[in-house]
Amino acid sequence: MKILRTLLLIVMVCTALKIEAQPVIYINQVAFDSNAPKIAVIGTDVKFGKNAAFTIIDAASSKVEYNGELSEAEQITNWAPGKVFYQANFTPVKAKGNYKLQLIAGGKSYLSDSFVVEDNALANLTIPAIIHYYNKQRANKPEEVAADSHIILYGSTNTVDLRGGWCDASGDVSKYFSHLAYANFMSPQQIPLVTWSMINTSETAQKVLNKLGVKDSLDNEAIWGADYIMRSLSKEDYFYETVFSYFSKDPNARRVVGLRANSVTTADYQAAFREGGGMAIAALARISRWKKSGDFSSRQYLDGAKRAFAHLLVYNTKYDDDGKENIIDDYCALMAATELWIATDSGLYRDEARKRARNLEKRISPGGYFIADDGSRPFWHASDAGLPVVALCRYLGKENEQGYRQAALNTIKTALLYTLRVTNDVTNPFGYARQTFRYKNEIKEGFFIPHENETGWWWQGENARLGSLATAAIEGNKLLFPPGSKSKVKDSLATFASQQLSWILGCNPYSMCFMYQFGQKNVPYMHSSFGHGSERGGISNGITGKKGNEDGSGIDFKTSDDGNEWRWTEQWLPHAAWFLQAVAATAGD
To answer: Phi and psi (nearest 5°) for 543?
Structure first.
C-alpha cells in the first residue's frame, strides 16, 4: 500500500509539472476595437525556439486570418520567478469577426479564449451592461428610500432627505462623495465622478449610444445621480460627504458622517473640493446645459453648482482635513470651474479655471510626475491617477487663449510622457501602468500602490486607476496629435491605453476578466444588503501587490482571505465609471 501511495504521488507530481509546463495565453477575453492595438501575452516555463510564431484564426471555421511572430522572451522575476513571457501583437487584424489566438509549441496546438474584433467593439458590448450595473446599484429599495428620506446628521437629532444615489460597492451599501478624506492625498471621487462620467459619455458618444438604443437609459441614470447631488447640497451650501451604513443590515442605522479610519465617524461631513465637492459642482453645471429636469430643474442644477462653488472658494481649506489644499483640490476645482465657465461664460469661472490649470503646471516635478503637496510627495492614486490630465483636457475644450492652451498642453504632454517612461522602464509584457510613490521617505517606482500609506489600512485592486490612465492617454493623444498625424508617442499612448483595458478584461497573470459576466473567468458573486450585490457590467477591484509587502511589490489576487477578499473581488462604482469614460473616449463622435 505504501509503494502504491508513493507511485500515485509521483504520477500526481509529474502530471502537475506537465500542466505547469504548458504555455498559457493571456488575452483580452471580450473584444478589441478594429483600429486599436491588439496584444496578447504568452507565459511559459521554457523558452521557445527562435522565430516562435502564432496565428489568429476564425473561432468558428479555424481559418487562419493572420500570422505573426512572438516578441523576444521577457521575465518578471518580481511576479513569476522562472517564468518566461512573450508578446503576441496582432494589431493588423481589423476585419470584423470572432477570433482565437493559436500557438503551436512542442508540436501541440494551444488556443486562447475567443474575442471579438469590430468597430467600437468595447463600447457596443460593455456600455449597455455598465448602465445595467448602475441601475441595479441604485439605492431605491423601499426600505432604503424610507430610511434615507430622514437620515440623522451625526452628533445631532437633525435629519435630512438624502434619497437616491448609488450603493458604493457590492459589499457596502453606503453612499460616498469620497470615503478617504481624512487621508488627504488619497481621496477617491465616487458618486459625483460617476454622475459626471455618465454626462460626459452621453455628450461625447451620442452616435454609439443612439445606435445601441441606450442613450435615454444613460441620461436617466445621470439625472438620478444629479438629483442625489442636489439633495446632498445643504442649506448652508456645502455638500454632505457620506451616508454611512456602518455595515449594518438595518437601514435606519445610517448616518450622515465624516469618516475616518476603521469606520470611526465624526460630524466633519462637509465636502471640500477634493472630497467630492469639486466633481459634484462639475456634474451639476454640466447637466444643467441639457435643459432636462429630474426631481430638480436645469436652473436648479446650475444654481446649486454656483452656490456650492462660491461657498468652497471661502471655506475649502476649513473642510480639508489638514487645512491645506493639494493636487486633488486643484484638479477637482479645475473641473468645477471649467464646467461653470462652459455653462455661464463668466469671467469668474474662467479665472478660477486658469488658476487651477496653472497650479497643476507648477506641480510637475523634474521627473515628469506630479507633486501632490507643497513639498516633494509624488502624486499617486489608486483610482483617479489620470484625472489631472482628464481635467486639463476638459479645460482645453473651452480655453482658446493660446498662451494658456500651450501651457496646459505642455503639462499634459509631460505627464503622459512620464507615464510611458515609468511603465516601460522595466520588463513589462502586460504593459501594466507603473507609478512613482514615496515609501519610508524613499522615492520608489512600482506596479502597485504601497500598502503602507496615509489611510492606515486601504489598499485594493486598481482597475479604476487603469481606466483613468487609459482615458487620460486617449484624450491627451487627441489633443497632442491631430487626426492623420504620425508619431511614435501617439502609437505608444494608444498601446498603453489598450493594454490597461485588456488587463481589466482578462489579459493579466490570473486570466481573470474583472467585468462581471463577461469573458471566461470572473470573480465569485458577492452578496450585499437590500438585494444589491455583484451585477453584470460591474468591475471588481482587481490585482494588488503581494499581501504582506508593505511597499506594494510582488503580485497577489485572492478570492478567499478570511473576509478580506474584498480587496480583490468587490465591485466598486469608480471602476465602471472610468472604464465607461475610456470606451466613450475611444468611440467618441
So the answer is: -95, 145
Residue 15 has a pLDDT of 38
Tell me how long the chain is. Answer: 589
Q: How far is CA 381 from the centre of its chain?
A: 10
Backbone angles phi, psi at 279, to 5 degrees: -70, -30
pLDDT band at residue 107, thresholds of 50, 70 and 90? confident
32: Cα separation from own chain's centroid: 18
Residue 546's CB is within 10 A of a number of other CB atoms, namely: 16
Do the beta carbons of residue 416 and residue 476 sit within 8 Å?
Answer: yes
Task: Kindly report each contact of residues 98-101 with a partner whose C-beta sits within 8 Å and lies 24 or more positions away, as own/partner.
Answer: 98/58, 98/59, 98/60, 99/56, 99/57, 99/58, 99/59, 99/65, 100/56, 100/57, 100/59, 101/25, 101/27, 101/40, 101/54, 101/55, 101/56, 101/57
527 bridge partner residues: 533
Round to whole Å and give the CA distance between 100 and 503: 17
User: Assign residue 213 a region: left if phi > 0, alpha if psi is -120 to 50, beta otherwise?
Assistant: left
Q: What is the pTM of this model?
A: 0.96
Contact 30, 518 (CB under 8 A): yes
State mean pLDDT over 418-432: 98
Measured between alpha carbons, how far is 516 from 514 in angstroms, rounded to an integer? 6
Q: Using CA atoms in the order 356, 358, 359, 360, what is the torsion angle rounded to 10 degrees?
A: 90
Instruction: Work out the number of other CB atoms within 10 angstroms of the CB of residue 84.
Output: 18
Q: Assess whether pLDDT exceeds 50 at residue 287.
A: yes
* Residues whose CB is less than 8 angstroms from the CB of residue 459 and which lie 6 or more positions away in sequence, other chains included: 382, 448, 449, 450, 451, 453, 544, 545, 552, 567
Q: What mean pLDDT do residues 110-138 have?
A: 97
DSSP state of 95: S
Please state the φ and ψ torsions of residue 467, each to the nearest 5 degrees: -65, -40
**314-345 burial: b if 16+ Cβ within 10 Å, else e:** ebbeebbbeeebbbbbbbbbbbbbbbbbbbbe
Cell of 413: 504632454
With the C-alpha atoms ordered 135, 578, 121, 435, is the resulting torsion angle positive or negative? negative
How far apart are the C-alpha atoms of 577 and 210, rounded to whole Å?
19
Structural contact between residues 121 and 34, judged by C-beta atoms closer than 8 angstroms: yes
